[in-house]
Amino acid sequence: MQPYRLEMGYKIKTIRGTSLYDFWGEAITDWLNEALAEHDEQTLVNCASKEYSRSVKSDRLAAKMLNIGFKQYKGGVHKTIAIYAKRARGMFADWYIRNRISKSEDLLAFDRGGYRFQPELSSSSEYVFSTDLR
Q: So where are the chain's domains?
């Protein structure tokens, strides 16, 4: 069996620091700032996991970061279940690209896999979508 993903928590000593966050953070953030400069709405839509999101230096980001969260509703409680959230992030990214979304308010229409926007769980910095688990 082979590893299939890069663990961001992996410790590695380089001239940039002691972790992959240190190694990539500045370059990723600089690239995002350049890409965002070409868009009318200065919002970075982040549907990555928390582990990977930490690679962006948010204090240096020249835009608002809008986090997208996915929860499952079961037994009267909304909670994040990693395997379902991972699948939902993939569905969301596919939907986002295929529909050429360009405004953050258009994100509220996401409805694949039974997910629906949950305003009571959301804020101006995080949009939460939830689906029922049966």
A: 11-132
